[in-house]
Structures are given as structure tokens and as C-alpha cells.
Amino acid sequence: MPEVQINIGGRTFEVSCQEGEEHFLQAAAKMLNDEASVLSQQIGRLPEARMLLMAGLMLADKTAGVQDKLVEVEAQLAAKIEELEALKSAPAPEPERVEVPVIPQNVHDTMAELAARAEALAGDIADKVQN
Fold first, then answer.
1. CB 56 within 8 A of CB 33
2. What are phi and psi of 46, to 5 degrees?
3. Cα–Cα distances in Å, from 77 out to 46, 51, 64, 89, 125?
4. Least trusted range by pLDDT, from 33-42, 56-65, 70-79
5. Is the pLDDT of residue 93 over 80?
6. Which three-class secondary structure string do you get for 103-116?
């Protein structure tokens, strides 16, 4: 079992941990040291046991807050997953009917007649230009 030295509140402790868990122990010790530093700044020097107790309680309070938030976020996530599943299982919406305006036949006929007259006039003009 590896022995790890950690610093908390200006004091050094030697702690054993499982192989490969040194990083986690150092991270936990840093969090505890951060809380102990806050206590030292606010109160001053405390007996070791009291400092560790107070720092541990401060971390426990933060952890409880995070756990409450986690429960809330998990509930929100579950609601969103349920909503998503409901949307996935809902039948597809009916296709929208889109109506495109149609040009009335009499307008179409009138345009064809105008085009025929224009072509006839163009032909007359071409004949007059060649003569």
C-alpha cells in the first residue's frame, strides 16, 4: 500500500491508500486543505482535531448541496427523456395541404392570343423590311 504525504491546514499527514488511488487522495486532501485554509483565515490557529472536524463539516455541507442539486437535475433529465420518448412515439403530424394559385384558363387563352398577334405583327414587319 502506497504511503502519501498530504498537507492540511499547514500540517503534514502520512496516509495509506490503495494502489492507483494516490491522485484521488491528493484531490480530496486539497479540498480539505482549502476548507482548512478558510478556517485558519477566519478563526486563526485551531487544534488539529477541531480544524479537521470543521473543515470536514464544511465539505459535507457543500457535498449535501451538490447532492440536492444532482437529484434536481436528474429529475429534470428524467422529465426531458420522458418528453422526448413521448415525442418519438407520437404519430407523425398530418401533412399540410398547400394550395398553389392557378392561372384561370381565360387568362391563359388571352395570353396565347396576344402572343399569336405579336408573332403575326413581327412577320408583317419582317416582310415589309425585305421588300
1. no
2. -120, 155
3. 43, 38, 20, 18, 79
4. 33-42
5. yes
6. CCHHHHHHHHHHHH
